[in-house]
Amino acid sequence: xxxxxxxxxxxxxxxxxxxxxxxxxxxxxxxxxxxxxxxxxxxxxxxxxxxxxxxxxxxxxxxxxxxxxxxxxxxxxxxxxxxxxxxxxxxxxxxxxxxxxxxxxxxxxxxxxxxxxxxxxxxxxxxxxxxxxxxxxxxxxxxxxxxxxxxxxxxxxxxxxxxxxxxxxxxxxxxxxxxxxxxxxxxxxxxxxxxxxxxxxxxxxxxxxxxxxxxxxxxxxxxxxxxxxxxxxxxxxxxxxxxxxxxxxxxxxxxxxxxxxxxxxxxxxxxxxxxxxxxxxxxxxxxxxxxxxxxxxxxxxxxxxxxxxxxxxxxxxxxxxxxxxxxxxxxxxxxxxxxxxxxxxxxxxxxxxxxxxxxxxxxxxxxxxxxxxxxxxxxxxxxxxxxxxxxxxxxxxxxxxxxxxxxxxxxxxxxxxxxxxxxxxxxxxxxxxxxxxxxxxxxxxxxxxxxxxxxxxxxxxxxxxxxxxxxxxxxxxxxxxxxxxxxxxxxxxxxxxxxxxxxxxxxxxx
Length: 510
Ligand code: B12
Ligand code: SF4
Hints:
The protein has 18 helices and 21 strands. With 510 residues, it is of the alpha/beta class. The radius of gyration is 22 Å and the shape is globular. The chain binds cobalamin (B12) and iron/sulfur cluster (SF4). Iron/sulfur cluster binds next to helix 7.
C-alpha cells in the first residue's frame, strides 16, 4: 500500500516566537513500521514546510496514497481534520487515520466532529498501526478492524466502534529505529544549529494533574537499552551530521544508573554532540549531572511548576520547594544550564501565588524560565477537574496552546491570568541581574538571543484578543463527557497508592 504520513500545517508559539520546528518523531516511528511491512511511505511535515491546503493537496494528489496517517496535539486538531478533508477530496477511498495525545482521549468525539476521519489510534501507535495496515491490505473487506486493539473507528454502516485498549510495548527496544532518513533535517534548527531528537524512554510513574504524556505512554517507565540509545545517536551523528540532540523523554534521569551509563558510553565512544534532556528535581544527583555534563549535556529541563507547596500538592507533582532549590543549585555547580518550567493560573491559585512563583523562578536563578498557563488537556486529571467544576471557558481547541487562559479560575479573571503570563516573562528576563550574569558569561550572549524572542512573544501576547467566555456548545460538551473513561492511578507524593476506577458523577469522572 502507499502510506502517507502528515504532520498538519499547524503553528505553535515555539515556532512563531522562537522560529523552531518540532521534529514529528511519532510519525518517524510509524514510517519505519510501514516500511518494514513493505509499504511505500511518504512523509510530510506540512508545519515545518509552511504548507497551505493547496500545496498539501498537490502532494497528496501526486503520491496518491491508499492511507493517510495524521498526527495531532490538541491545538492542531482542526488542522489535522482539514488534512483528512483534503485527502478525501483527492480520493474518497483513502483511509484516513489519526493518532496522538489529543484524539487518544476523545476518540468518539473526534470521529463525530471530523467526518473525514475513519480511524483513531489510541495510545502508543506502532503495533496498532502495523495491524491496521495488515488488515486493510487483506481483501476480505467486511469489518477488517473489528479485532484490532487500540482503535476507535467508523464502521461501513457508519457506526462508531471502540475496541479494547492496546497494551503497551513491553520492551521498547523491539520498536524499529525511527525513519531519520525521511526527515528533512534542515527544517529543524535552533538558530543556525540543526538539531536531532531521540526518545530514550517512554512512560512516567508520576501523575501531574496537567500532563497527558504520562497517560499516553503509561505509568510504567520503559527505557531503551544503552546500546540502542548509542546506536540512534550514532545514526544521527554519522549519517545526518547532527551535533545537537534533544532527548525527548519525559524524565531522562528517572533511572539514574542508565542515564549515567548512556553518558559514560557517549564519552567512551568519543561522540562529540551537545545535548539537553528533561529531569525532575527529585530524580537527579550530582554524580549523574556531572556525567551528563561530561558527555556534552548543556541544559537540563526541570518541571518546577510552582513556587508554593500548596500548588505543587494540588498538581500532584510529588516534589518540594526545597528539592527544587537543591537541584538547581547542584546543576549550577556542575556547570549545567537549567530551564525551569513554571505553570500559572491553576483554578485554586490567587494573585499572590502567581507572584510567588515568578519570584521563586528569579530566586532559583534558573538559566531560562518557561512560563505557561495551566491548560486542561483532554484525558488529564485537570481536564476532569475542569469538567466537574464547570471551569472550561471554551471548546475552541486552537486556544489550547498554554499561552491562553481557557479554564476559569476561582479567583482570577482571564485578563489577570493572561497579563500575569506577560508580566512573568518581562519580570524574569528584563532584570539587571539577568543582564549582568549574561554579560559575565561573555561570547555566548543568552540575552541577545533571548530578548528579541521575548519581545516578539510579549507583543504577540498583548496583540491578540482574549479567549472570550462563551456558552459552551452543550452537545459538544455532552460528547466529550460521555467518552469512556480511563483508570486513573491514585498518586500521593509521586507514589502510586492504588487505582481509582472511572467513577463518574453525572457522567463525569471524579
Ligand atoms: C517534543 C514535543 C514538542 C515539540 C515538537 C512536537 C512535534 N512532534 O512536532 C514542540 C516543542 C514544538 C512542542 C509543542 C507543543 N507541545 Co509538545 N511535546 C513534545 C514531547 C515532549 C515529545 C513529542 C514526541 O515526539 N513524542 C514521541 C512520539 C513517539 O510520541 P507521539 O508523537 O505521541 O506519537 C505516538 C502516539 O501518540 C501515536 N501517534 C501519534 N500520531 C499518530 C498518527 C497516526 C496515524 C498513528 C497511527 C499513531 C499516532 O503513535 C506514536 C508512536 O507511538 C511531548 C511529550 C511526549 N512524551 O510525547 C509533548 C506534548 C506532545 N506536547 C504537548 C503540548 C501541550 C504542546 C503544545 C500545545 C504547547 C506547549 N507549550 O508546548 C505545543 C503544540 C505544538 C503544536 N502546534 O502541535 C502535550 C500534548 C497534549 C495535548 N493534548 O495536545 C505533550 C503530550 C506534553 C504533555 N506533558 O502533556 N511539543
Ligand atoms: S513528571 Fe509529571 S509532567 Fe513530567 S511526564 Fe511525569 S506526569 Fe508528566
